[in-house]
């Protein structure tokens, strides 16, 4: 027996009102399609086929190596999409199992899919249903007088009595391959949409004496995303699942409802997260680190014992026991050594900060290498852009950069050097030297009195 998964991902999602294909909208750090593929991976299929249509090339580029894209063009319904997938597979026999799910259902768990696959035993197939208090838009499950499955009718084709039914088609099916192929050949587009509906194979198979099992799922697990409000609902559920999982792994969250952790983020036991934390992409936080409140970190590493608060990190690496913030911005390429500091209103880009080095406040360090134990005074900046190209500043170990120093790159400041406050440094500074660049101070005695006298004279002239 082989298990084949077919993920239907061809729709545009017009209610999203977006040029982005619906299945590529993200929730909790992963696309809707990505979530669907993760749940499918939990049943270990031998092959995974993703039926693409709207934005086919864009969707296909996001697929993992194992998944195969199958083009549905034109898009003539779920039955048509499934038929195209089976044509791509070639001949199937009755021992093969095909599971079909939708790419816009990010909350489906591998446990539910395992139940569906396991249910295809003596039965010809399995469908998943759920009960909704407001079933508008969903296909209704129609049962016979004995309570057995009879068919599924779409909203547009349903009678008034059928629209009153609350059991709906959840959009997940599994069939023996040969049986499914035979049933699909009997479909006809005899409905308001003029499409081939996958659920229409159910009465065909039932009339042929086959048995179809129905698995009932919790509504929250089979929520389909067709609009931005439903996307937000799905993200809230996913975020709660992720946060509960991390809490069970030993991560402290003061307010899980205000903690946002992407699906691919890695957290160590002992991490402490405070409200307003957003961790995205490949961000990794090591044990003992304290993050938040109000931190956005994307594709960044926050190492053991570091403290980051009220700050933004993008592709940055914060060293062990280092401190970032409040109100710091670490841009791509920033690497901080152990026990270093990027303090209040500090911005760094493509800069390496050595161990025990500090940029405490109100400074910009760009395209710079800063040595160990160096201190950069308030208001200092690297002037790294000449209007055409970026240039590098190299600052040695144990350097003291005076407040309000302008470091005009390209520039090298030697070990143990000092720059005077308010200096504009345009030439390299040798080891241990003091570099000053400022005009001599000039005092004008009696200036305040003369200024006040002039003010009175001007006032009398105006009168």
Give an overview in words.
It is built from 9 helices and 41 strands. The protein is of the alpha/beta class and 463 residues long. The chain folds into 2 domains: 3-221, Alpha-Beta Complex (Spore Coat Polysaccharide Biosynthesis Protein SpsA, Chain A), CATH 3.90.550; 228-435, Hexapeptide repeat proteins (UDP N-Acetylglucosamine Acyltransferase, domain 1), CATH 2.160.10. Strands 5-4-1-6-10-7-11 form a 7-stranded mixed β-sheet, sandwiched between helices. It has a 7-stranded parallel β-sheet with strand order 12-15-18-21-24-27-30, with helices on one face. It has a 7-stranded parallel β-sheet with strand order 13-16-19-22-25-28-31. Helix 6 crosses helix 7. It is elongated. The N and C termini lie far apart (105 Å).
Explain the layout of strands and helices.
Layout: E1 3-9, E2 26-27, E3 30-31, H1 32-41, E4 47-52, H2 56-60, E5 67-71, H3 78-89, E6 97-102, H4 110-119, E7 125-131, E8 140-143, E9 149-153, H5 160-163, E10 167-176, H6 177-184, H7 201-207, E11 212-216, H8 228-248, E12 252-253, E13 259-261, E14 266-267, E15 272-273, E16 277-280, E17 284-285, E18 290-291, E19 295-298, E20 301-302, E21 307-308, E22 311-314, E23 317-318, E24 323-324, E25 329-330, E26 335-336, E27 341-344, E28 347-349, E29 352-353, E30 358-361, E31 364-366, E32 368-370, E33 375-376, E34 381-383, E35 393-395, E36 400-401, E37 406-408, E38 411-413, E39 418-419, E40 424-425, E41 434-435, H9 447-462
Parallel strand pairs: 1-4, 1-6, 4-5, 7-11, 12-15, 13-16, 14-17, 15-18, 16-19, 17-20, 18-21, 19-22, 20-23, 21-24, 22-25, 24-27, 25-28, 26-29, 27-30, 28-31, 29-32, 32-35, 33-36, 34-37, 35-38, 36-39, 37-40, 39-41
Antiparallel strand pairs: 2-3, 6-10, 7-10, 8-9
Helix pairs in contact: 6-7
């Amino acid at each position: 027996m082989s298990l084949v998964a077919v993920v239907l991902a061809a729709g545009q999602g017009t209610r999203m009102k977006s040029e982005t294909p619906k299945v590529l909208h993200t929730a909790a750090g992963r696309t809707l399609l990505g979530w669907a593929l993760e749940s499918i991976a939990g049943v270990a299929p031998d092959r995974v086929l993703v039926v693409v249509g709207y934005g086919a090339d864009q969707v296909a580029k996001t697929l993992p190596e194992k998944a195969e894209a199958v083009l549905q063009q034109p898009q003539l319904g779920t039955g048509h999409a499934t038929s195209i997938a089976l044509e791509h597979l070639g001949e199937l026999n009755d021992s093969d199992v095909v599971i079909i799910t939708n790419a816009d259902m990010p909350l489906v768990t591998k446990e539910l899919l395992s139940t569906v696959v396991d249910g295809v035993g003596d039965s010809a197939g399995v469908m998943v249903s759920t009960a909704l208090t407001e079933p508008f838009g969903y296909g209704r499950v129609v049962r016979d007088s004995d309570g057995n499955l009879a068919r599924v009718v779409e909203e547009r084709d349903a009678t008034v009595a059928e629209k009153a039914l609350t059991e709906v088609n959840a959009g997940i099916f599994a069939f023996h391959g040969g049986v499914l192929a035979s049933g699909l050949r009997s479909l006809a587009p005899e409905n308001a949409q003029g499409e081939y509906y996958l659920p229409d194979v159910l009465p065909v198979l039932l009339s042929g004496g086959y048995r179809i099992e129905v698995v009932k799922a919790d509504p929250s697990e089979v929520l389909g995303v067709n609009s931005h409000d439903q996307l937000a609902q799905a993200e809230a559920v996913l975020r709660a699942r992720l946060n509960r999982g991390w809490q069970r792994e030993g991560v402290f969250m003061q307010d899980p409802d205000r903690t946002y952790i992407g699906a691919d983020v890695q957290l160590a036991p002992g991490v402490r997260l405070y409200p307003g934390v957003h961790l995205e992409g490949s961000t990794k936080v090591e044990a003992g680190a304290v993050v938040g409140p109000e931190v956005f970190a994307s594709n960044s590493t926050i190492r053991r014992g570091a403290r980051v608060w009220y700050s933004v990190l993008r592709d940055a690496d914060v060293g062990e026991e280092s401190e970032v913030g409040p109100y710091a911005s670490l841009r791509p390429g920033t690497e901080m050594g152990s026990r270093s500091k990027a303090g209040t209103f500090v911005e760094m880009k493509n800069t390496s900060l050595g161990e025990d080095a500090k940029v405490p406040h109100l400074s910009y360090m760009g395209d710079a290498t800063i040595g160990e134990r160096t201190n950069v005074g308030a208001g200092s900046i690297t002037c790294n852009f000449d209007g055409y190209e970026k240039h590098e500043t190299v600052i040695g170990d144990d350097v003291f950069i005076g407040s309000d120093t302008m470091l005009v790159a390209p520039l090298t400041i030697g070990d143990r050097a000092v720059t005077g406050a308010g200096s504009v440094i345009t030439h390299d500074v040798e080891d241990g030297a003091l570099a000053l660049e400022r005009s001599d101070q000039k005092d004008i005695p009696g200036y305040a009195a003369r200024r006040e006298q002039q003010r009175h004279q001007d006032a009398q002239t105006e009168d």
